[in-house]
Amino acid sequence: MPLVEINYAPHVPHAVLKDLAAMLPHAVSLAVECPEEPYDGDLQPGDVDLRFRPRGPFDSTGMDIVVEVRSKYFESRAKNRQDRVDDLCSAISDATGLADVGVYLSLPIAAWAQT
User: Taking the chain (115 residues) in consecutive chunks of 10 residues, what is each chunk's mean pLDDT?
Assistant: First the structure.
């Protein structure tokens, strides 16, 4: 399950954040799909965890939105991670219309359990 943190600037409209919340689960799932964790297009609760965070007064980024995706390491996922993050960044920029978008993809060695 990818964990996704979205940090956004105060001027980003609520409607843009709502659209982002709607498109991100599918876009992130496409970005991290691999043979070990294939994406069948049928998202279930808990498949992608979104966490929206407004930028604080002491945060230093000047970007409109920064999206950090953490998903379990698999070699097949890691070998083309730059292409994956580039495609996700383009999808987010297209969906939001924002010019200053950053995407960080982290692939830690991890485990996940869910009930």
Answer: 95 96 96 94 91 93 94 95 97 94 94 80
